[in-house]
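Complex 761.
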Amino acid sequence: MKKLAVRATVTLLAATFSMGSVWAAETLQDVLKRRQLSQQDLLAAAKTYTPSGKRDEFVAFSSGGQSGQVIVYGIPSMRILKYLAVFTPEPWQGYGYDEESKAVLKGGQIDGKDITWGDSHHPAISETQGKYDGQFLFINDKANPRIAVIDLRDFETKQIVANPVFKSEHGGAFVTPDTDYVFEAAQYAAPLESRKFYPLEEFNEKYRGGMTYWKFDRKAGRIVPEKSFSVELPPYSQDISDAGKGPSDGWSFTNSFCSERYVGGIERGRPPFEAGCSAKDTDYLHVVNWKKAAELVAQGKAKKINGHDVLMMDTAVKEGVLFLIPEPKSPHGVDVTPDGKYIIVSGKLDTHVSVYSFEKIQALIKAGKFESKDPYGIPVIGMKEALHTQVQLGLGPLHTQYDTKQCVAYTSLYVDSQVAKWDYCAGKVIDKLAVHYNIGHLMTMEGDSVDPKGRYLVALNKLSIDRFNPVGPLHPQNHQLIDISNDKMQLIYDMPLPMGEPHYAVAIEAAKLKPGVRYKVGTNSRTDAEHPGRARAGEERIERNGNKVTVYGTLIRSHITPEIIEVELGDEVTINLTNLERAQDETHGFTVSTYNLHASVEPGKTASVKFKADKEGVYPYYCTEFCSALHLEMQGYLLVKPKGWKATKKEIAKGSYTEADYQATLKKIVDTQAVIDSVVGFITSTNFKDFPDVVAMVDDATDQLGKIPDFKAKHEAAAAKKDWEQANLWAEQVFQYQVKAADIGLRAKTYLEQNGAKKVK
Ligand code: CUK
Ligand code: CUA
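Predicted structure with [4Cu:2S] cluster bound:
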């Protein structure tokens, strides 16, 4: 028997040894062979691979397209970090399921109706003197003309504003160099008055496009609708826009397509939109002096439409703030160069990019040299006179981004599925790279600011076709990472983007982002104000006022206060919950079964859910984040009693506890205390005070331990009365506080060990 066992052990050891040697023997060369990787692949991997625990150099904010959200990912690893809930309810963040975020979504109502999705296209990071400052992010909704404001201190959507005069919108969101204004251009022309019908036969007279300049109050972190205005424009299908910078600061530039003002209607026997909208050889670049327009509006020269200031075209023309320049055929992207001297326009149906000179444009305006007027009396500047150069790049140029290197630009070629690298000063092509497949926008690091960072380019490709494992007819989009730090562009990574069609993305140096990890206790994160429903430890209560029941509750590992909420059928219930934790990442979630509610309550936040208790019954509520070892026990009951219900049974069933149980629990408490003492000993022997995260954890642990004396008194009192159930359970609660304190303490200890804390005694 013994021999057998020994032999078995030896065999096992031998097997382990030989298996170990097989693994150890797989060298880099073996892996390259097994996975059929080339040296080129290896190089690409080395450029993108981000070792475990290491972070990215840049953070990208990608439009989430039809998902109405924003996707945040790191560059060069291309790891997705977060989805930001913006226009669409998103349960994880409680967005659209708690009262605070519902208020944000309500700001995006149009004509009094909820809109629960968005077609988001263009994110924009706030700028200071034309440089990304990492404070705010803006994004538009094309389908339902709206702009959202996201605060990058907590990556939460704070505000959605609906455009008061447009029915659709595409050329947004773009910011002016100091983020005084966030602007958007209409897309499909429609009457500006809301809910007003005019037949298509009156298209030229009654349908309009426009530009809206939303005033941004940086201190408040909000758009101020009352101080915002629009400029009325012809029904030319305004498209992408950009703000001037440097010498062109104060001006904005907006493309258009279908300046033919063509109205289709194939069912009426008319050739379709696409034919009539691309018939002419040129469309119009709109050039607007927005600074002067703002002054005119301040002088009362605007007209109120739907309660909103609109600078009408005739005023804009008379005052010299609006000009047009012909641009080649159905253009799409317009991108001002980092130095603000040139405006680069790409025509979808033209193989050239056109480089306009701001200096020339200004000289022509000053000299009053216009080649004609459009049907609305807007002066038209001659295209030839305004151009610096035109460069033939290839088929379907769309969007342009810039490099750190002077005069270097990258333009996407949709039809050719290529990125063209070219020189806009000298007007020549430098390099081309095939991408997979049809590329829309592209993005270089901080590539639309005055200070592009170069390094990487992301191609936002629309048809991924065969690049990834098949997942049904609806394919992900393909974001391809390209190394642009050398003369030749090198494709280094494919990332499937599995949510909506991301039209545009922006990327910022990671070091510029400094988001917080907790709120001041009792904060409504959506307004940044103190939440009226906040409660600190010991202030928890349930208040009733007629049929309105308001709960002021708290959350802390692993306990929801209160644990029982009793209401009557038909009551209107508001549950406010404050997360009392200070430790980083100690989020608690909250839901009540079958009432379609959810809140994500990060440390310090107060969130609330509101509902009518319109179903009699018993509804468990619980914490939805695995927040501690006793997370599952973080629970409670909502009791919805029929009206006039009377209790017959007076007590909850007792367990059978003995004195021995109580003694065993006391022993457990003594043992746990020894663990806590050793952890405390370790922490206090280091320079832990230099680590704010650890200080927060120590505060939390101290809170938990601070509760013990009260409960100790309770179990001792019950033991004196030989009530062993009460004695045992109050002692268990003491143990629970110890466990949580120990849990936090151990996490703090690990943190200190991993972050190079020093021994101080
Ligand atoms: S758009 Cu989609 S590829 Cu909305 Cu900027 Cu050009
Ligand atoms: Cu709190 Cu789970």
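Residues 121-122, 170, 240, 332, 398-399, 440-441, 503-504 surround [4Cu:2S] cluster (ligand 1) (CB under 6 Å).
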